[in-house]
């Protein structure tokens, strides 16, 4: 105990002049370093983890030193992760634990605001499916879904095959020499742990191949409408949500208190020319500004802002979709776009901004859209989108909902939960109803509403005619 206490004292070294506390593993429990309301220094804590521990439990313990009750502000966590592919394993287990912690404590797996960490969590059904495809393609049991990394020098599949044999993920039969996969070949944790034993060039190339396959698997799931996005947030960023219409329907088994609401909301995510010039005025980089691209005899303009000078990464704004999530490199921007003055970009920016209110990107660039030509709704690149959200006592009308959705989505009815906040501050949580299902659903809910209203009226008549008998029934 004395040695542990001495180690804790060494680990809790506090540099008073710089307000820095260095915590060792021995000091990762039992101390409080949060921005407590009772202490003099109530500034926000910045917790830097130089090396993530093997155990997710130990990581949570360390994070708990600066994130405790009675604090003024929550801490900011900074994780230092090298570009070595095998180290992604430590980020993966911590990310999965943090997301599950948010689900347990808040009922929402994103409640801990770990959106940036979620990209490190590969241990899900999409990651396991991608790993299975990768391993089978390496031993030639299945065709590869994506090509190998282009920057790898040598025979990718042969060298990776040799490396995986060395770490025990691929077995070689003694007599026949046939390659077989390990029984846990699609175990994400084991895969990320074992590739640490491979050469740096091999493990980075293999992890890049796995990441590309995972992206292809997720893209295919999105294309087929089977991708689980969890809860879809609208109006949380730069999007503007406006309520267009709301219809209420009484539900079976309830009086006037039980009802469902079908909200029609419009979501706008674009950026006007005035907003673009205002954002441009705040930029000071030499390569920041407006760029124009020529495509199919039409020009489009974008606004870029450098956010990472070391890697030359830029934030991109578009007139129809606003700020983009993905950062672009300067090399990619120069390949497609040419820098121009603001006066030269104004007309192209305004044209796309106005047309994207009703026309998708396909129709804007090509002149027509395959989905729109057959009467289907295409929302690719649309600035203004319309959503129909059903909320309230949804379970009471679930049978009617299944009858409407089944012909569209098949036997496996998949619904998307949405959470939004309108411009006037109203919060709505419900299910998104496809546009082609709104009319049949309204017909069914209207019929149910009329029947329920007739039942309520009959009950009120009986109460007027026989008030004593009704009171006796209620008391009984």
TrEMBL record:
Organism: Ilyodon furcidens (goldbreast splitfin)
InterPro entries: P-loop_NTPase, SBNO_a/b_dom, SBNO_Helicase_C_dom, SNO
Domain SBNO alpha/beta residues, every copy: 271-383
Residue ranges of every copy of the Strawberry notch helicase C domain listed in the record: 19-233
Family statement drawn from the similarity comment of this UniProt entry: Belongs to the SBNO family.
Lineage summary: Eukaryota, Metazoa, Chordata, Craniata, Vertebrata
Name of the protein this chain belongs to: Protein strawberry notch 1
Gene this chain is encoded by: SBNO1_2
Pfam families: Helicase_C_4 (PF13871), SBNO (PF25373)
Domain of life per record: Eukaryota
